[in-house]
Amino acid sequence: MTGILITNSPAMAITLCVLTALAVVARHYLIKAGKRRWPVTVALFILAVLAYLDFAHARVMASFVPARKGAYHYFMGAKYFKEVGQFNLYRFTLLADKETKIDRLKKIKKVRNQQDYELMRASQALKLAIEERPKAFSDERWAEFKRDWVAMSRDLPPAVWERMLQDRGFNPPPFWSFIPGTVAQFIDISNNQVFMWAMHIDMIVFALAVVVVGLCCGLDAALLVFLYVVLAWFYESKFIGTYFQFFWLAGLIVGMSLLRRGFGKISAACFALSAMLRLFPLMFVTGPGIAWLRDWWQTRRWSKAWTGFLLAFFIASLIFVGIGLTRGRGPASTKDFVSKITMHADNQKFDTNKFGLKRAIALKLTDPWPFISMEERVERFFQNKALYHFLLVAIVGLMIAAVWKKVDGDAWVVPLGAVIIFALMTASRYYFLLWVVFLIPGRENDRRGFAAFADALLFLNNALMFLIVHVLHDRAAFTAGNFGFLACSLLFPLYLLLHGRRETEPEKTAQP
After folding, report:
1. pLDDT of residue 372
2. Buried (b) or exposed (e) across 464-492, using 16+ Cβ within 10 A?
3. Angle of helix 264-278 versus helix 247-260 axis, rounded to 10
4. Model confidence pLDDT, tens digit, residues 384-443
5. 430, 249 Cβ separation under 8 angstroms
6. CA distances from 165 to 67, 110, 160, 228, 455 (A)
7. Global pTM value
8. What is the pLDDT of residue 361?
9. Collapsing DSSP states into helix, strand and coil, what is residue 119?
10. Reduced to 3 states, what is the DSSP secondary structure of residue 355?
């Protein structure tokens, strides 16, 4: 990295975010005036290069040094899904550590029980693993698990492993493990070169998704997608050095790009893929469902385009669920997942480093910046519960109204699912890269004011988070980010209602 200016500073991030917001507004007015927009494209390219050098380059270079922390849950959970399922990875890890005499975990007193999220004594978890091992693993698979544990454990000290074994574990749906689990069977993680290639899968897939954006929607959209992901304060280049953890994001990006080119059914399959990998993208069919009902109500005929989209999504989802049932645990894996994710969602809805409407109002609104305990956040949520219900109704109501009005040729029907996700769910921070769908407007829609408005607001929200963390602290930045996403959830549909162009017939590229 010698010779490359890398500051990784909040000031630089704020500058890049604000300049990007200004660029998208300038681009809109150039398009509106019928002038060439290549100066903005050049500016976005320069900003993308600066963002990469300042915030991603160091992580890319570091990812060529083996570091197995990011891979433990997803690699081991996928490869041994048949044996460990949703609940038992930690206890079998304790047993593997004991039998191999690696002793990375010897001094750990407690691990998290994945069935109720309570901390349990490590000795109790170890006892359960000894009892369950013969039923869960064949001798050959157990020997392989232990070999992988020896390779996995060597990069990290015991203190890091203690924190990891008190984490909330492995949570993706059963289908997720199909491709990662199959690929993992052929990866020797004791071979550093092979392992490093495996840890670059998410980065490679994201790069390919950005290329698809460029091919379908133009270079400007591709640069904006790249900039938003790299400049998201809450993201910090997390998919560099992970294992199939961000395929859901690539599914959203590719699906949105294909939708803009009119490939509705293939696009729906991509959204279904994303949903079966991470569940919450199911909300992106909310808008198409409302549009489908709207068209029937207004014409007493089913919309061919939205019917095809919804059917393709439903059929693809069924196929993916069926594939998940083949992962060796049958219907029990789905039952376990539902139990785990329900508990997970309930447990984390007021967590500090999360985004969602409940998290946004679980504060003392007159003084929202200090760090407060989980118990205080729960108490303040119930104090503000009337406000929560008001905002929930406002967000959902505005979104339904914007879709029902049929503005801008239904161009934003699918992306508006993001506001429903914010209103109904509290999710881990990096999942809120999902707002990237608004940055893929399509060639016919980017002349409209809404694209510039939405893009600018999203980049300014990123700038706000960098500013708050610089002035105050990271917990306050999460609060600011939640307020920013709340503003987006209210203002995006409101803007469309006030300024969107009413269409009697959808534009060629708007619907699938």
Report:
1. 74
2. bbbbbbeeeeebbbbbbbbbbbbebbbbb
3. 160
4. 899 999 999 999 999 999 999 998 889 999 999 999 999 998 888 888 999 999 999 876
5. no
6. 17, 8, 9, 32, 39
7. 0.89
8. 87
9. strand
10. strand
How many Å is the Cα radius of gyration of the chain?
Answer: 23
Separation between Cα atoms, residue 46 and residue 191, nearest integer Å: 38
Model pLDDT, residue 1: 33
Q: How far apart are CA 500 and CA 491, in angstroms?
A: 12
Q: Cβ neighbours of residue 197 under 8 Å, at least 6 residues apart?
A: none
φ and ψ at residue 407, rounded to 5 degrees: -95, 155
Unique residue bearing structure tokens 């809404």: 450
Alpha helices by DSSP H, 245-363: 247-260, 264-278, 286-299, 304-324, 331-348, 357-361
What pLDDT does residue 123 have? Answer: 92
Residue type, 233: W
What is the reported pLDDT for 8? 64
Distance CA 110, CA 124 (A): 9
Nearest to 84 by CA among 141, 123, 127: 141
**With a cut of 70, which residues of the chain have pLDDT below it?**
1-8, 57-70, 236-241, 327-329, 365, 443-447, 502-512
Amino acid type, 361: I
- Strands 110-112, 354-355: pairing is unpaired
How many CB atoms within 10 Å of residue 324? 23
Cα separation, 353 vs 88, in Å, equals 26
Q: How many CB atoms lie within 10 A of CB 8?
A: 14
Residue at token pair 């408005």 = 453
Query: What integer pLDDT is reported at residue 506 of this predicted model?
Result: 42
Q: Kindly tell me the burial class for residue 65, based on how many C-beta atoms sit within 10 Å of its own C-beta (0-12, 13-18, 19 or more).
A: exposed
Q: Describe the crossing of helices 449-471 and 219-230 by its angle, rounded to 10 degrees.
A: 20
CA gap 76, 389 in Å, rounded: 41
Question: Which residues lie closer than 8 Å to 364 by C-beta, 6 or more apart?
Answer: 372, 380
* 107: its two tokens: 């001094």
C-alpha pair distances (Å), 30 with each of 40, 307, 377: 9, 37, 46
